[in-house]
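Translate sequence into structure tokens.
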Amino acid sequence: MAEACARRGSRPRILDTILRNLLAYAVCVGALLALAGGDPLTHDPVPAVFDAESAEIVGTWRCVEGTEVVFRADGTASVTLLDGQERDYDSGWRVSGPATWTLTAAQPAGWKFGQHVRLDLPARTGSAARADVRHETDLPPAPQAYRWTFELRRDERRGLELYFFYGDPGARSPYVLERDP
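Result follows.
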């Protein structure tokens, strides 16, 4: 019996079977990652901030088409025409109203581990649609309440930037608020 196994070459067949199975497994995993948007090359790394202070957040921050967020030292805020983040951005609504904010400790939230700014709008007082949205009647209504999680990063002068991502996670874009001087 040992001679028969040696003549047939069972060891190379076992190795071939193992290699074929590993290759099939790798192809399946690659296909699943591609379908689920898990291609790590489509996402730029998100820098983390661990040294932000509340005083750096306090002030007026602006973005496109009249967006304005005023962060006050007492933890209150005023939101004017702020878009929804991530996939909510595609709905085209913009909300306004009084809010509260907190600077988090280093923790996992948003797209990375680190500090974040959480902005809570408990009841909107106004809403509008972005100018690039054509069929306002087809839009879902703006939510009555909303929570944003802003990522933090440092610019080249070590100044703080607040931003969140919008759009499809596979093709995300940053929505950056700039602080008034």
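Note: The radius of gyration is 25 Å.
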